[in-house]
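Data availability (excerpt). The following record was deposited with the supplementary files.
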Amino acid sequence: MDRIYIGNLRKGDIIIMSKGESASSGLFTHAAIISQIHKTYRPYILEVTALGFERSLYQPHAGCDYVYRLKGALNEEIAGKAATIGNIWVTCYPDTEYRGHTHTLNPGVYNTSSILTSFFGDSSYGNKAMDYAEYLHKSCQSSPPRELRRSARFFSGAICAYLPIALYQAAMGSVDCIGTMEIDARKSLPRDLARYLDNNILWVCLGTATNRRT
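Predicted structure:
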């Protein structure tokens, strides 16, 4: 498997952490998205964890963090827009907390019951998933979606895989994301997202992220 130096990552690259020979074949653990690149720092990453919805400096796990990138020069603009929307979500909302290089919104966002719903649910892009993607596109360009603004109830859908999916759908809308991010944001595990990207000709797995220049 190839290695990609973190200095060569781009805004909108999706990171899927796994302990297998490919992101979709191994033990899936997490999903996130690169939000910003700095020459003097490690890249920033957006993720949903038990601590909340966060933007922080990225520290890759050696040999475990698979990097997926949307192909094509035109799609690079879409990827950048997805990352920019995520930066807006986590930095411009009044409840955001700042701790050095870490920005956190809503520590109660991560919803354990949603993991079970995603595990037993259907991640396919049905009517409800399309309606939700349109909601993201029309209502969430400048403020985070309801799942990230308040503490989760019994089901929010806001687990780690939710974030990269929701950001791309917010950037494109329900129709334009067909063929590019055609998956249910609220019912997808990291495994589901990895399998979707692995089988999508518009996406490429560049290898695993590393701190070392290759």
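Summary of structural features: The mean pLDDT is 86.
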